[in-house]
Write a structure and sequence with these properties.
This protein has 14 helices and 22 strands. It is an alpha/beta fold. The strands form 6 sheets. The chain has a 6-stranded parallel beta sheet with strand order 2-1-3-4-5-6, sandwiched between helices. Strands 8-9-12-15 form a 4-stranded mixed beta sheet, sandwiched between helices. Strands 21-20-19-22 form a 4-stranded antiparallel beta sheet, with no helix packed on it. It folds into 4 domains: 121 residues, Rossmann fold (3-Layer(aba) Sandwich), CATH 3.40.50.12160; 117 residues, 2-Layer Sandwich (Transcription Regulator spoIIAA); 111 residues, Transcription Regulator spoIIAA, CATH 3.30.750; 41 residues. The chain is 33% helix and 22% strand.
Length: 435
């Protein structure tokens, strides 16, 4: 009887794409995939470490596995595993920890451990991580997350990602195109381009490894030419994929050229997610962000002008060290005035080895939570208004394949969520829909 594996993802869309690839590696090795709530022989948790809550959730999941399947092997990988392997090794029940360089060698490591052995840590110095490994989330969602870039060179003062993911590196344009064509052949309708710093995509000569972690290819200079704009212009011509979305992209890297291209494209959706983090130039400076709010406002204004129907999402952090009531209100008022659709609000949490962790003027935790609540309320109002503006319009909806208690969900081109009674004929199909 085949052994079974269950996988769980914490964190970003890029993590979802990598977890899906890890699952396929395990299936190719003979493992049968199970739901994470089922009893399995092996559990894999792909972690995030952006916030303290992500760390806590990892520990909680391990305890749950211990209660449900005490003889199962527990594997931890992802950002938390790279940053704090010894801390994870102290969690009862963890058998294997795979850092950034080893996660895609999971099959070889799994076959080399036995339940009851001391926890095995397979990690390395993040400075030694130079490879790019392509991954995507095919068969897990109708919207397929395709990883095209990894790592970050920005070193914002609050962020551990460069320590967990390493330097910025990218796939080749030719390889991204090949992956998109393969996804189309398998019935994928929509691809979400993902990366840690997506706009920093630079197709450059690099050592690539495939999902099996075996074949490695050196790219030549001709294959290597191109930036993010070059990538999207070529993807726009891929046959079979009806929709592309650009996931989170830094405002200083979201050029007018990219915005204008999306406005004219029939395949790239009118949907942007643009991190702001703070509406105060003082706080942006402390965060070591690479723009000021005026540039951010210019980007939003251009999108609103040439794509008034576009959906714009915003990341914002509350409670950063030194954020006074006045700074917070400056952020609130700035967001209130912007014509945007929704917010992703993060409560600042201290992360070890970041510059912000040593900053004075710490904001009390209860005030951080109050500010989070205020902005989440603003986000709700923004999304309600954005949806109301489009009521009565007919827009194209791609319905997802999951039957959720007799209902199904889908998203319009401009990311309005539609819920309707389940209809199997609409699964993974684009339907003209009156909102």
């Amino acid at each position: 009887m085949n052994k079974t594996v269950a996988l769980h993802t914490l964190g970003c869309k890029l993590n979802f794409s990598e977890t899906s690839s890890l699952g396929r590696l395990m299936e190719n090795a003979g493992f049968e995939k199970k739901n994470f709530d089922d009893v399995a022989d092996v559990y894999v948790i792909n972690t995030c470490s952006v916030t303290e809550n992500a760390d806590k959730e990892c520990r909680m999941l391990v305890r749950r596995i211990q209660r449900k399947a005490p003889e199962a092997l527990v594997v931890i990988t992802g950002c938390y595993a790279q940053l704090k392997p010894k801390e994870i090794a102290s969690i009862p029940g963890v058998d294997l920890i795979l850092g950034a360089a080893e996660k895609f060698n999971i099959v070889a490591h799994i076959t080399d451990i036995t339940k009851g052995d001391s926890t095995k840590i397979c990690s390395c110095d993040i400075e030694d991580v130079h490879e790019f490994t392509a991954s995507h989330s095919l068969n897990d969602r109708t919207r397929i997350f395709l990883k095209v870039q990894d790592g970050c060179d920005y070193n914002c003062s609050f962020c551990t990602i460069p320590m967990a993911r390493g330097k910025s590196r990218s796939d080749s344009i030719s390889n991204v195109i090949a992956n998109a064509e393969a996804i189309a052949e398998q019935g994928g309708k929509e691809i979400v381009l993902t990366g840690i710093n997506l706009g920093d995509f630079t197709s450059s000569p690099a050592l690539l490894q495939n999902e099996k972690g075996v074949a490695k290819t050196k790219l030549n200079k001709q294959q290597a030419a191109g930036n993010f704009f070059s990538l999207i212009t070529k993807l726009d011509k891929v046959e079979g994929i009806e929709r592309f979305r650009i996931s989170s992209i830094e405002p200083n890297l979201l050029t007018n050229e990219i915005i204008e291209f999306v406005s004219k494209s029939k395949k790239f959706m009118p949907h942007f997610h643009i991190p702001l983090q703070s509406g105060s130039d003082k706080i942006l400076g402390l965060m070591k962000r690479r723009y000021k709010k005026e540039l951010y406002k210019e980007r939003i204004s251009l999108i609103n002008t040439i794509m008034p129907h576009a959906c714009i999402g915003v990341d914002v952090i509350v409670g950063f060290p030194g954020e006074t009531d006045s700074d917070f209100m400056e952020t609130f008022n700035f967001l209130h005035q912007l014509d945007i659709a929704y917010l992703h609000v993060f409560t600042y949490s201290e992360r070890a080895n970041t510059a912000a962790a040593d900053m004075a003027a710490v904001v009390p935790v209860n005030i951080r939570h109050e500010r989070n609540k205020i902005l989440r309320n603003l986000s709700y109002q923004k999304m309600q208004y954005f949806t109301k503006v489009h009521i009565g319009e007919t827009r194209k909806v791609l319905f997802e394949t999951k039957n959720k208690n007799g209902l199904m969900e889908g998203y319009t081109d401009n990311y309005i969520k539609i819920t309707t009674p389940f209809n199997a004929l609409w699964e993974n199909n684009i339907i003209e829909w009156k909102i």
